[in-house]
C-alpha cells in the first residue's frame, strides 16, 4: 500500500500497487509537481520503533587545531 502525495495539486491518494503509484508519481512529476510516494507499511514500522537515542560522547569537544596537534603528538610517540 502506497500513499501518493502531490503538494502542488493538494492531492492524497492511497494506491495498492507499486506500478500504479509510480505512474501517479511520473504523471505529476512530468507536470513539474512536488510529489512523493510513501510506503505505508514501512512508514508505520518506522513510527512504531520509536526515536533512536543519541550516542553519548565522553570526550570534551575539540577544535580542529587541537585534534591535529594531538594526532601529531601520537605519531611522534610511536
How does this structure look, described?
- Strands 2-1-3 form a three-stranded antiparallel β-sheet.
- The mean pLDDT is 80.
- The chain has a domain at 2-48.
- The protein has helices at 18-30, 40-49, 64-77; strands spanning 2-6, 11-15, 35-39.
- The protein is built from three helices and three strands, in the order ββαβαα.
- With 78 residues, the protein is an alpha+beta fold.
- Residues 65-78 have a biased composition (Polar residues).
- Residues 48-78 are annotated as: Disordered.
Helix-strand blueprint:
Layout: E1 2-6, E2 11-15, H1 18-30, E3 35-39, H2 40-49, H3 64-77
Antiparallel strand pairs: 1-2, 1-3
Give the total of beta strands: 3
SSE run: EEHEHH
Query: Which structural category do the helix and sheet elements fall into?
Result: alpha+beta
- In round numbers, the mean pLDDT is 80
- Describe the strand arrangement of the main beta sheet, using strand numbers: 2-1-3
In summary, what is this structure?
The protein is of the alpha+beta class.
List its traits.
78 residues, alpha+beta, 3-stranded antiparallel β-sheet
